[in-house]
Each structure stands twice: as structure tokens, then as C-alpha cells.
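Page 37, continued from 36.
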């Protein structure tokens, strides 16, 4: 039962592969959740139409009217003009250029709408309801297909002047490293993300290195994923172990940079690669101790996220509540 229907938010986590819609209370409780494929290769209008239909279905499932919704929060992967609610560009939504997402939803559904970067939303979700409870200065890093980040300073999300802060996956780690999807070279994402791990494995096997990874994908090297590499590494495959160790080293360098720049109490690691656990995080923590300044390195605890795939939607809802509480002051 919804104890306070007007304090319900429609929350969206819009990603390049999947989209989640939900109804969330101010307590962080998820009362309704719907998952579907984004099909991002299509026209943005098609993606938006499917999302609008999904939100209508989500409200119907929760037995809510639009008048009973406090607001809509949309967490979206990409570079946002947060004041105007515009998705300027997104590596995961290839055809999106200057899409006025906030106004489209506000106009179509008649509900006040807010847009926030997905990793910043996940950082806020973990801070309020997950691993970051009780810590006012935290950094969240999602290590998945790509790498994104969110920053919490003094208990509030730091979004930057335009809302673009937190693109932590695009700090340069290796000046002459491989090209990243963003166009730059040697980004953390290009060195330690899921697609980087899969690409490294495919390249080395094509070069003639032997690995059980080949059998795991039945010889279809195009099917190699970071999860495949992790599975092989757990079984002691030498190539897979080496690739994971290399990714962990680069991740550790990135984390050391974050420790020195932000001096956080906590760094929360989320995303699919965090499921590797200590196989990835233990060597990364070691690199932080070796590279970061000693005092902030001792202060910063590096832990796994708790909210899993719900971090983005919970954070998007928390952002709506925060914005509305701010306007009441």
C-alpha cells in the first residue's frame, strides 16, 4: 500500500541497452518496476514513444493517476544541459543530439520532469539508500560496458556548471592508449571497461594466443564479453587472468587520481565488472595504496555498490524529491 501517494515519483533509467521505469516512494522503496530493451539504434522519437508508453503502463500497474505523481526523474547516459533538460549527446544513444527530453515528458504527461546523468543518479541513490549511507563525501564509479561516475560533496550531488561533472571514465590514463568511444585516446573507459576487456581478449586471441575463452564462446570471438573473460579467469586461464590484472591496474590508477583530487571518505564501485569482486578490486586497491598520497589513501574506503541495477532509478527519484524540497524553501 502507498502510504503517501503524492510523494511517489515516476523514475526512469534510460540506457543504451536497457531501460527501467518505476514508481518510487520518498523512502527509496520501489513499488512498481518495468524493464525493456531501449533499441537505441532507432530514431529518438521511437525510443521516447516506447518510454512514454512504458510510463503509462507503470502508472496503471501502480494504480496511480498523473495528479498523484510528485514528478518524473529521468536518469540518462550522456552529456546533459541540466538546466534546460536537454540531452546534448550520448555515446550510448547514437542518434541523440540536443533532445529536449525534460520538456517532451512534461508536455506529454503534464508532470514536472527532471533530467540527470545516469551515473550521477546512481551516486545519489547509493549515497541516500545504499553503500554510501552516513558518508557525506563520496565518489561513485560504475564500471560496466563503459565507465561513468558521480560525485557527492557535503551530502549533495556535485553536477558542475552545466550538469556535466562526473565523466570520470574519460580521464586520460594512458596518453598513447587506444581510442575511446568518446574520440579521445587512453581514457579510463578505453583501458578498464567491459568493452575494453572484451576487445583486448579478442585482439590477443586473433593474434594467436591460446585461451579457454575461445571454447566458452564456441569459437565465435564476436561473442566475447567481459563476463566471459571473468569466467575464464576464475578457472585459471592465463590470458584471462592477465587481461583482468591489466584492467585492475588501470582501474587502480584511475582510483588513485580520484583519491588525490577529491579526498573522499568512500569510493563506491558499481556496474557489471564490480561482480568480479576481489579479483578486480583487490589489485586496484593495492595500486591506490602505491600511487595515491598516503593520508587520503588511508581515509578512502573502496567498496562495492549495494543497490545493483536499481541505483539509477532510486537516485533519479531522490533527485526529484531534492529539487522539489529546494523549491519549497
Amino acid at each position: 500500500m502507498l502510504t503517501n501517494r503524492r510523494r511517489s515519483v515516476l523514475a526512469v533509467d534510460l540506457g543504451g541497452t536497457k531501460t527501467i521505469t518505476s514508481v518510487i516512494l520518498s523512502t527509496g522503496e520501489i513499488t512498481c518496476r518495468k524493464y525493456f530493451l531501449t533499441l537505441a539504434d532507432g530514431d529518438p522519437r521511437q525510443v521516447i514513444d516506447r518510454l512514454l508508453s512504458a510510463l503509462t503502463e507503470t502508472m496503471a500497474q501502480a494504480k496511480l493517476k498523473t495528479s498523484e505523481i510528485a514528478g518524473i526523474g529521468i536518469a540518462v547516459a550522456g552529456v546533459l544541459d541540466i538546466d534546460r533538460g536537454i540531452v546534448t549527446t550520448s555515446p550510448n544513444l547514437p542518434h541523440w543530439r540536443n533532445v529536449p527530453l525534460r520538456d517532451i515528458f512534461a508536455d506529454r504527461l503534464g508532470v514536472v520532469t527532471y533530467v540527470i546523468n545516469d551515473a550521477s543518479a546512481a551516486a545519489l541513490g547509493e549515497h541516500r539508500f545504499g553503500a554510501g549511507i552516513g558518508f557525506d563525501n563520496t565518489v561513485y564509479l560504475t564500471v560496466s560496458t563503459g565507465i561513468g561516475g558521480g560525485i557527492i560533496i557535503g551530502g549533495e550531488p556535485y553536477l558542475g556548471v552545466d550538469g556535466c561533472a562526473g565523466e570520470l571514465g574519460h580521464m586520460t590514463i594512458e596518453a598513447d592508449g587506444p581510442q575511446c568511444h568518446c574520440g579521445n585516446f587512453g581514457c579510463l573507459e578505453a583501458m578498464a571497461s567491459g568493452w575494453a576487456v572484451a576487445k583486448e581478449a579478442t585482439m590477443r586471441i586473433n593474434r594467436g594466443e591460446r585461451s579457454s575463452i575461445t571454447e566458452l564462446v564456441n569459437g565465435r570471438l564476436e561473442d566475447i564479453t567481459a563476463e566471459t573473460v571473468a569466467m575464464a579467469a576464475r578457472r585459471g586461464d592465463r590470458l584471462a587472468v592477465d587481461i583482468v590484472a591489466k584492467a585492475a591496474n588501470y582501474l587502480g590508477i584511475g582510483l588513485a587520481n580520484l583519491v588525490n583530487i577529491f579526498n573522499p571518505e568512500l569510493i563506491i564501485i558499481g556496474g557489471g565488472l564490480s561482480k568480479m569482486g576481489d579479483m578486480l578490486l583487490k589489485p586496484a586497491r593495492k595500486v591506490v595504496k602505491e600511487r595515491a598520497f598516503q593520508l587520503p589513501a588511508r581515509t578512502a574506503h573502496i567498496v562495492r555498490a549495494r543497490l545493483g541495477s536499481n541505483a539509477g532509478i532510486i537516485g533519479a527519484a531522490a533527485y526529484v524529491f531534492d529539487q522539489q524540497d529546494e523549491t519549497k524553501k
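Residues 1-6 have pLDDT under 50 and may be disordered. Flag for discussion at group meeting. The chain has two domains: 5-117+309-328, 131-305.
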